[in-house]
Amino acid sequence: MGQTSSAPQPPVNLSTPAAASCPVDHTALAGARPPHPVPATAAQCPVDHHAAAAPAPAQCPVSHDADALDPRTHLPALSQAPAAGQSLALPTGRETSSIPRDAAGRWEYPSPQQFYNALVRKGWETPEEHVETMVHIHNFLNEKAWDEVQRWETQVNKDEKLELVRFKGRPGELSPKARFWLFAGWLLPERFNSEPPFDRHDWVIRRPSTGKEVRYVIDYYSADPLPDGSPVFSLDVRPALDSVSSIGMRIRAATQEVWAGARQEGRV
User: Fold this and answer.
1) Distance (Å, rounded) from C-alpha 30 to C-alpha 154?
2) Please, which residues bridge with residue 199 across strands?
């Protein structure tokens, strides 16, 4: 996790050349669009006194709205059908991740066709021939992020069988820490990176032994590519500062890294 326990870890090299893409949120490659404001409505009684007292008609409990969001992923259902105007056939097979969803199974990554449909749905132009490589990078970054979450959680219980219960992509929403590093980069550009993260995600994990849920914040950074063109990424993964226990984890990790650095330099 970088220079300190809460700083980005050293860049992760992926040998396959490709453009950086969003991990987990399949629509975050080009940044988020701000939502349209909701017009205000006149104040009124929330009870409709003109409605009939008849019970609501029976209906299917499952939403069949294609735009309905899955509460676990904050994403709509992704189609496997080719997009309009698509010229290249894309695979529809899905890879199973190493990340537990619950006690019954693990999360599945989107197929290249689903990934492409997600991009088209947002109006983002992407060369079809690059989609499979993007999915490969997407899956790779997810696995590395999960490795970092597990490393943090060894502070609590190294034998815990963690579960990722839900997540949300928040591209364009800078975390307080990302804002701090941007300010540092503006103040000391020769020492700190002045580029913002290209994506952000919030992951909520569960510790099954206690049932406790913990939120993690993940900032994704791009670095200069290698001489052969291979992309380089840096992930800053840490527990959110929204509970006393998570604050304690961050403090312990920072202290351990400071002492480790001092020992390495022979100061202690």
Assistant:
1) 34
2) 220
What is the residue range of 259's domain?
84-264
Look at residue 149 and tell me whether its pLDDT is greater than 70.
yes
| Distance separating alpha carbons of residues 155 and 50, to the nearest angstrom | 59
Domain count of the chain?
1
In this structure, is residue 19 part of a structural domain?
no
d(C-alpha 163, C-alpha 207), whole Å: 7
C-alpha–C-alpha distance, residues 194 and 196, integer Å: 7
The two structure tokens encoding residue 253: 């990790």
What average pLDDT score do residues 245-261 get?
Answer: 90
Query: Who wins on pLDDT, 236 or 65?
Result: 236
At 174-197, the pLDDT tens digits run: 999 999 988 988 888 888 888 899
Strand partners of residue 218: 201, 237
Residues 6+ apart with CB under 8 A from 147: none
- Determine, yes or no, domain membership for 217: yes
